[in-house]
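Friendly challenge for the regulars: who can give me the structure tokens for this chain first? No prize, just bragging rights.
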Amino acid sequence: NSSREEEMDKMISPIVLMRLPLFAAMHRSPAARSEEDVERVTTLIGSSTALLGAPLDLQKQVARMAMYRQFPPSEVIVKEGDASEEYFIILAGIVNVVSTASADSLTEVVNRLRPGEGFGELGILFGSSRTCTCVAATRGGVICAVLEREDYLHSLREYHSIANRYYDRYIY
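First reply, four minutes later:
Bragging rights claimed.
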């Protein structure tokens, strides 16, 4: 762990975060959110890299649908091989992305995702199963905004497809 990650590990406490209006608004069910709640949730998720550059109306649409999900330390969030049914935006905590080497069943951390990053879109976009396991890696757990498959497809499919075409063209 780097010193920054150790510092984040100490700072994250879901109990403390729930006292903040932004997280309290996110914790309400989508149907129970007021317009003020939607504005707060938009502020929270709109600054994520997952929605970077997205139009404000799209950010608000996601804020209206996203569900709050909390994962205790070491809990598996998604498991390699499972169906891709949800998209996650990390709000607090660190997620280890783990891949299983098929030859000897050893696991290896292949990436560490931080607040603001999203995961789970590829399986939804391509109709495939999960290619890696994601595990809550922070002592205080992980908090995510979660979109169900249909909500993701309805709101973010086109936006992420455009972004992926851009990256394919200019990075690869």
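The first helix runs from residue 3 to 11. Strands lie at 67-71, 76-78, 86-92, 95-101, 106-113, 118-119, 133-136, 142-148. Your move, everyone else.
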